Every structure is written in C-alpha cells, then in structure tokens.
C-alpha cells in the first residue's frame, strides 16, 4: 500500500454558522417531531422507546370544566363573568364572587428554578397537533343543542336555545387552551384615557386621516398567547478589553492630535443564572418583530406582565374579550429563547468589566441550558389599531395598553411632508446662523 | 476661523435637519422600542467568575475605544461556541 504512512487528517470541528441578523437562528433545530431515521427500521425495543409518548410533566387541565360548562359553585348557573378590575369571577345570576387559583402556588411554578434539569413542559404548552381543528362543538347539557366555538378568536359562546354559557376549558390539541390566564385589571375607560393621552402628545405631525378617524373607544381587549419560561442556565463569554495607560497630545493649533496608549487583556467570564418568567410571543404573527413590515414591536414593548398572579385557566375570564390562538410550539421558540438568554448573560457580565475604560470586544459566547420550564399563558392587552393605506398592503399601526400595568406604547403614522418641512425649516435656520457666524469671523 | 471649524459649522444645517427628522419619526412611530428583557426579567445570578490576562499593549492610537467595542450591545451575537442545551 503506497499511502499507508500518510497520517489521517486532523479532526476539525465543523464551523459554527454565522449569525445573520436579529431573530435569525444561530443553530437551526430539527423540525419538531422529526427523527433522522425511520423508526420502522429500528429494532423493536428501541422503536417502542422512541415512539412512546412524551411525558407530561405538569398537568394543569381542569377536569371539572371539561364539559364546557363552568358552573357557579353556589347556585350552579353558567352565566359566569370576569369582574372588571379584579381577578374575581362573578355569577351574574346570584352575584356570588370567587377567586381563581393562582398557578404559581398550585403547580409550584415559582420555585426550584435552580434545580431545573431537562425540559419541563406544562400540559397547556404541549405541541399543537397538525390536524387539530379550530372549531370546537359542544353538546349543550341543558337542551342537547350543538354549540360551536371558533377557538381562533373566542373561547366562550352562548347556547342560542337555552342561554347556557359554554367555555373551552378542556386542553385540546389545537393550542387554544393555555395553562393559565392573567385577567384584565385595567378597565376599558382607563385604557381609552391612556390611548388618548398617548396620541395627544403626538398630534402635530400625525397623519391627517389618523387624527380625523381617531376613536379610542374602539379599543379591543385581546388575550394574546405567550410562553412563560423559567430557565437554569450557564454562559461563558470571551474577548478582549483595553485599559488606557496614557493619553497625550502632539502638534499645536489646528494640527493638535490626541493619542492613547493602552494595555490589552484577554478576558473570560462565566456566569450561572436563573431566569424567572421570561415571556415570549407564542404566535407566529406577533413574534415577527420586523418594524419595516409591522408594528408588533409595540405590543412587545408593553411587556412584562405580573405573571406571578396568573390564575388557572378558566374560559369565563375571556367572556366579552377576543383571543388569539397559540400556533408556536416549544421547539419553534427554542432559538429565540437561547438568543435572549445569551443577551441576558452579556448584560450580567457587563458590571465585571467596568475597569476596561476603553471598552470590551466580546468575540465568542457559549450557552449551556441545564433546564427549562414552559408554561403557556393568555395575557391581557388593550389594542387600538389603525390601518395606513400604502404599497404592499399598507401598515397596521397599533397602540397597546398592558391590561395589568397600564404601560402604553404606540405607533402613530406620520404626515411625511409635514415632518420633512419641519426638518428643512430647522435645518435652514441653523444653516443661516452658521453663515452669520462664518461671515462675522472672516 | 480655520477651514475645519468652518466646515463643521456649515454641516450644522443638514445635520440638524436629519437629526430632527429621525428624532420626531421615532417619537411618533417608536420603531426602536422593544421589551428590555435583559433588565425587566427576574434574573438571579451567581457571582461572575473569570480570568483577565494581559496579552498586548497598544501605543499611540488615535481611537478612543477598542475596535469592535460591543460591551453594551447585548443583542448583537458573536461567534457561538456550542454548549449543552436541553
């Protein structure tokens, strides 16, 4: 053999794919549910193991509500509503009030984050079945009629015949029923006042049509789907930092220049940390924060919510409000989660490099996710929207109010010509001043 | 007045116009806003550990910061070394 003495080539690890912009995956996970080998070709014991159902770690489903009827514990009526401004449910028949169970205590979501290992998924955050339908029908136990609920936008309905109120409480596989819900605290009048106040501060250059059609009373209360994630994480970062050792000037007059000497250090930092209730949008549309195409960043900005006060799912909280259904699974959100965890790690180590007064250039970073816990939740948002016509379908502007804290953020469409005129006017005045100064000094 | 100073003064008009435009545009549209999860999420971190080793010296540079300074740009990803993820 002629090539027997040639040493084998050194094993080089494959290069890490480059990061190419916000939200893009650093490491694309395999599609959810996919498996690199056809399980049918595997030996039976392995196949059985692979095909066995995944364990559900925390079961948050409410067996007592599975027939869709949420009855008043005192009188048994089904006309249950959320009492505005509180976390209470109220029976519209006998006025009995009661409080939902906080999931934080009921399922221990706030504890043991530093002990998390692997991925724990609450039952309401399980993967969405591809064939699950949005429309759900119930057989009314009062009169036997069929009642249909479109879970795409609503979670309650009333029987046309006997007036029973139904709610989707069973954790069906279409992702519509979360583990928990955070009821609205901010009332509609308050939300309207906040939106009006927000827009009143942005009227001068606002689009004329927007101002003419501005009716904040049209604000809609929406429950939006989110994943609330606890994580137990370690991160390492490495790079170089510089400390200034000397500063001096050379030359004189116009030619004077400042020079710096500096010591260069190779830095490594390691941090172990836990995050409690990191909130990610679990709807594809809402999670797309491209500000050139939409204004979803407005809804993102009003985070965070006091998710510690979320109560166990009960569709009666949603009566009178609309809702959007979750369409993202845990696997889809993993990349975005890791991206945010790395950002948190970089923010955490910043204080430890304060002495590097010429800055630090981080060059490498590593994340080890020891454990995560995923809970799906509906969070309350007051949304006012305005559609600005334009090319490619125009742009939908939102003004959003956090239904718990009242934090308000919005996108007000601008009248471009007015804005440009104002900028040009100020620019001309400044230029005039500059010319006067130049003229007087020469 | 020097040529440099004159040029700077003449730039005042265009710079002021551009600056005002962007300030107002962002004030109305809030395109630069998003959830500051780095600071608004409850994070419990153990003390940061690590090492600092002097490797070089820079003499007579006119730059006021290290090239590629990204200490405050938490969201700009750098080369990712693969760790364990679950």
Average pLDDT metric of chain A = 81
Radius of gyration of chain A: 29 Å
Helix content of chain A: 10-25%
**Poorly predicted runs of 5 or more residues of chain B:** none
| Helix coverage percent of chain B | 25-40%
What class would the helix/strand composition of chain B place it in?
alpha+beta
Assembly form of the protein: heterodimer
**Biggest beta-sheet profile of chain B:** none
Span from first to last CA of chain B? 65 Å
- Strand count of chain B: 3
Integer average pLDDT of chain B: 88
Give a verbal description of the structure:
The complex is a heterodimer of chains A (about 450) and B (about 90). With about 450 residues, chain A is an alpha+beta fold. In chain A, about 20% of the residues lie in helices and about 30% in strands. Chain A has helices spanning about 45-50, 105, 190-200, 210-215, 285, 295-300, 330-350, 415-440; strands at about 80, 90, 95-100, 120, 135-140, 145-150, 155-160, 165, 180, 220-250, 255-280, 310, 320-325, 360-390, 395-400, 410. In chain A, the strands form 4 sheets. In chain A, strands 4, 9, 10, 11, 12, 13, 14, 15 and 16 form a 9-stranded mixed beta sheet that branches. Chain A has a 3-stranded antiparallel beta sheet with strand order 1-2-3, with no helix packed on it. In chain A, strand 5 and strand 6 form a beta hairpin. Chain B is of the alpha+beta class. Chain B is about 35% helix and about 25% strand. Chain B has helices at about 5-30, 35-40, and strands spanning about 40-45, 50-60, 80. Chain B starts with a helix and ends in a 5-residue tail after the last strand. At the A-B interface, strand 10, strand 11, helix 6, helix 7 and strand 14 of A face helix 1, helix 2, strand 1, strand 2 and strand 3 of B.
């Amino acid at each position: 053999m002629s090539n027997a003495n040639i040493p084998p080539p050194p094993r080089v690890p494959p290069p890490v794919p480059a990061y190419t912009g916000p939200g893009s995956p650093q490491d694309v996970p395999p599609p959810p549910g996919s498996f690199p080998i056809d399980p049918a070709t595997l030996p039976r014991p392995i196949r059985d193991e692979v095909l066995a159902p995944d364990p559900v770690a925390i079961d948050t489903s409410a067996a007592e509500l599975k027939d869709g009827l949420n009855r008043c514990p005192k009188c048994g009526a089904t006309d249950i509503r959320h009492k505005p401004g509180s976390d209470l449910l109220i029976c519209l028949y006998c006025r009995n009030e009661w409080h939902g169970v906080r999931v934080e205590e009921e399922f221990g979501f706030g504890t043991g984050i530093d002990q998390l290992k692997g991925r724990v998924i609450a039952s309401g955050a399980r993967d969405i079945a591809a064939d699950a339908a949005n429309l759900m029908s119930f057989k009314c136990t009062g009169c036997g009629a069929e009642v249909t609920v479109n879970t795409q936008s609503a979670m309650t309905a009333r029987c046309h015949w006997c007036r029973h109120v139904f709610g989707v409480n069973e954790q069906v596989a279409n992702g519509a029923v979360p583990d928990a819900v955070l009821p609205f605290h901010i009332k509609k009048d308050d939300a309207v006042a906040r939106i009006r106040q927000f827009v009143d501060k942005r009227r001068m250059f606002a689009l004329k049509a927007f101002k003419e059609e501005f009716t904040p009373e049209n604000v809609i209360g929406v429950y939006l789907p989110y994943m609330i994630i606890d994580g137990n994480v370690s991160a390492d970062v490495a790079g170089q930092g510089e400390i200034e050792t000397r500063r001096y000037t050379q030359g004189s007059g116009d030619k004077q220049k400042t020079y710096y000497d500096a010591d260069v250090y190779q830095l490594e930092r390691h941090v172990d940390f836990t995050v409690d209730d990191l909130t990610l949008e679990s709807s594809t549309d809402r999670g797309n924060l491209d500000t050139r195409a939409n204004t979803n960043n407005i809804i993102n900005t009003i985070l965070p919510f006091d998710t510690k006060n979320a109560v166990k799912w009960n569709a009666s909280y949603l009566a009178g409000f609309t809702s959007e259904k979750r369409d993202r699974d845990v696997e889809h959100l993993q990349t975005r989660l890791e991206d945010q965890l790395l950002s948190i790690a970089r923010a955490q180590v910043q204080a430890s490099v304060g002495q590097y007064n010429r800055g630090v250039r981080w060059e490498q970073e590593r994340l080890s996710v020891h454990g995560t816990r995923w809970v799906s939740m509906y969070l309350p948002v007051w949304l006012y929207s305005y559609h600005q016509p334009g090319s490619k379908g125009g742009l939908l502007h939102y003004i959003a109010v956090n239904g718990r804290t009242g934090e308000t953020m919005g996108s007000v469409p601008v009248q471009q010509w007015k804005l440009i005129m104002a900028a040009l006017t100020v620019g001309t005045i400044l230029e005039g001043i500059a010319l006067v100064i130049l003229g007087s000094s020469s | 007045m020097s040529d440099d100073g004159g040029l700077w003064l003449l730039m005042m008009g265009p710079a002021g116009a551009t600056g005002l435009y962007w300030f107002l545009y962002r004030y109305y549209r809030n395109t630069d806003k998003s959830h500051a999860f780095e600071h608004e999420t409850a994070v419990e971190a153990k003390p940061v550990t690590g090492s600092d080793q002097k490797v070089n010296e820079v003499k007579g540079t006119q730059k006021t910061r290290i090239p590629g300074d990204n200490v405050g740009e938490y969201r700009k990803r750098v080369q990712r070394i693969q760790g364990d993820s679950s």
